[in-house]
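Why do we bother with holo predictions? Because pocket geometry can differ from the apo form. Keep that in mind while you read this record for pyridoxal-5'-phosphate.
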Amino acid sequence: MTITDIIQSKNVVSTFPNRGLSLASGNGVYLYDEKGEEYLDMGSNFGVNLLGYGPSPVTEGIKKQVDILINCHGSFGNPQRSQATKKLLEQVEKVGLTGFNRILWANYGAEAVDAAIKFALIATGRNRLLSPRNDYHGKTLAVLSVTSSNEGKYQKPFQKFLLSTDYFEFGNIESLKKTISNQHAALIIEPIQAEGGIILPPEDYLVQVSELCKEYGVLLIIDEIQTGLGRNGRFLNVQKYVPGGFDCDMILFGKGLGGGLPVSAVVIKEELNAKIPKGVHTSTTGGNPLSMTGVVAFLDELEKSQIIDKSRVISKYFFEQLRNLQTKLNDKIVDIRGEGFMIGVQLLETIDPMDILKKLQQRKIIALPCSKDTIRFLPPLIIQKEHVDKVCQTLEVILS
Ligand SMILES: Cc1ncc(COP(=O)(O)O)c(C=O)c1O
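The structure, written out:
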């Protein structure tokens, strides 16, 4: 055990599960421990490092800003914030979602969710929320009200403090029809349930959800914190529904938006902004110039590198290889699900996914848990066929 490992287990508050590995640096698709041992990163730090690690145009941009200005309170304007705001709004417009012209900049995913909930409650004057069972939106106290994944494991200790929320079955429009009413301020939903097990809804589902929300005057909050920014092979997961008539009131971003720096965003339209009084949500570091430089550099690089288009080719190969493996090991692998580089491998219920993750880690591959029977791959978008081959061959050895 290194001193880093000891401090991690003895002095850092133990709310995080301990993976028994300390990581010191990264390059491309690899992470390195303090001894320089190389790990293939198939988790990108829970979806953050979409472009991988090491020197890049994104890190160059961030470095320059460090000497110029790191923080600037949101009550003052700032050129980096203006640039990031303009760029993200342009990207949203490009995918066909119109009317979005305001951004609240926050620091991490759950803060954006929290702010979005507050916006909905105050703008509608209603006092109930709607969310699918098994969704994950983060862990602040208010946000736990809509985070019911893992059979409510994170909510249970705080049950009596949660906001009034009604839950419905994800992917089942009849279940929502029975639940929705004009008492609901907002419906918050993940386009794909990620932490909940990589669960995809039926093709027409989100269009129907958006129509029902309109009918009842319920604000629709789309949480693209994990699915967005290319993770599912498109800039936004929901852009595929726009031709079918899909619309929403708030779009949430987080994870990789700052090129690795902590930043999140609530993107809204003018009519909602007009109903939000001053002071409803602020934070000291939200929209700071350093994170904003990360946003601009990241969005620039995402566009210039055309990595989203390229990643779709490798994603197709990854799914093919995993499905071949499922055919060979159909007594161990129950299902392969996902889109782009958000992939779940559901295992037979007698297999402990944590044990498989441990064995992958022993063989120098980092993957992630999700739900009680599924392992999750969220690699950087830059992985190549050789990395897919290594993962599939290693998984075959472990499961055989
Ligand atoms: C869909 C979704 N929403 C919100 C969050 C919360 O983000 P954070 O952990 O940055 O608070 C996550 C985190 O995994 C997420 O996947």
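The first helix runs from residue 3 to 10.
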